[in-house]
Write a structure and sequence with these properties.
Layout lengths: L1 H22 L3 H5 L7 H5 L25 E10 L7 E10 L4 E11 L3 E14 L2 E16 L2 E19 L2 E8 L17 E11 L2 E10 L5 E11 L2 E8 L4 E10 L2 E10 L3 E14 L7
Antiparallel strand pairs: 1-2, 1-14, 2-3, 3-4, 4-5, 5-6, 6-7, 7-8, 8-9, 9-10, 10-11, 11-12, 12-13, 13-14
Length: 292
């Protein structure tokens, strides 16, 4: 009887995950990779392509170019309060010199029934006002259901760039799966290609406005916008919007000493709230001269 109950529970979870995939606003949940990751990103509606910060290794690798601080960074996302719809992430940043930084990332979505894994390593290099970055990812999809066992793998390359047009205005672009890779195996499908472009504007030192257009080859165009306001030296407030479907995003961040803590929520009309947590730790800083 206990075995039958466990079987029914697994079947129920599998059906639940399938339904959430059909309704989910997150392109990562519906189509796989790339995952939007980090509470900072979720707080501003994932409009991150033109930003440069400690989560750039998971969003636009070009943002690592010129970063000063070696860091470790972890993230946890709880989607809609359902078991099995959680994302765990871990990343590190290592500045090599004044303009070059390397980074790695590990991301896992799902549970033992269904999960997606991504391992990536890349680098960002700043050349004057232009930063360029490239990253190589190993992807794996695993389904371990009573009636279906599936294990698919792929190697995907992503490329990004950020141009500092002025002291307060930057443009960013990013392409995921520029190699048009496909998953291995009998059920292998082409990994979706995602193209992103957008701007970041800082009218004041304490205010940052972000916009982004996102096109996944399997999905309609999505428009995103976000606002970050530094209300105190160590405290940030964030909000954002994303389209198709319309989602609302809110977040806050705190920096104390070497620690960074960020929290965000976003809402969905049918699936309620999701929660996002990030924790970063600064290891050491380089003495780098800023670009004029």
């Amino acid at each position: 009887m206990k075995e039958q109950s466990g079987y029914l529970s697994r079947q129920k979870n599998f059906i639940l995950i399938f339904l959430v995939f059909c309704l989910s606003p997150s392109k990562s949940l519906a189509q796989g990779f790339p995952f939007p990751l980090g509470a900072t990103s979720w707080g501003i509606g994932n409009a991150t392509v033109a930003r440069s910060d400690y989560s750039s290794g998971m969003n636009n690798i070009a943002g690592l170019g010129g970063l000063k601080e070696a860091m470790l960074f972890s993230s946890y996302d709880s989607h809609y309060g359902f078991d099995g719809l959680n994302t765990l992430g871990f990343a590190g940043i290592l500045p090599i010199n004044d303009d070059l930084s390397t980074g790695f990332s590990v991301q896992r979505f799902g549970d033992n029934l269904y999960n997606q894994l991504s391992l990536g390593i890349g680098a960002g290099h700043r050349l004057g006002r232009v930063s360029l970055g490239i990253k190589v990812n190993y992807l794996q999809n695993v389904v371990n259901a009573p009636t279906l066992v599936l294990n698919r793998k792929a190697v995907v390359v992503e490329f990004g760039g950020i141009v500092q047009l002025s002291s307060d205005f930057s443009f960013g672009a990013h392409a995921f799966n520029i190699t048009q890779s496909s998953f291995s195996g009998d059920y292998g499908n082409k990994v979706p290609t995602t193209l992103r472009a957008g701007f970041n504007y800082k009218p004041q030192k304490t205010i940052s406005l972000s916009t982004e257009i996102n096109k996944n080859t399997d999905l309609p165009v999505s428009v995103k916008a976000g606002l970050e306001y530094q209300i105190w030296k160590q405290l940030y407030l964030r909000t954002g919007l994303a389209s198709r479907p319309l989602t609302n995003h809110f977040g806050a961040g705190f920096k104390g000493g070497k620690f960074y803590f960020d929290y965000a929520v976003h809402s969905h009309a049918q699936l309620a709230w999701s929660h996002h947590f990030s924790l970063g730790y600064g290891l050491w800083k380089r003495n780098i001269k800023e670009v004029d």
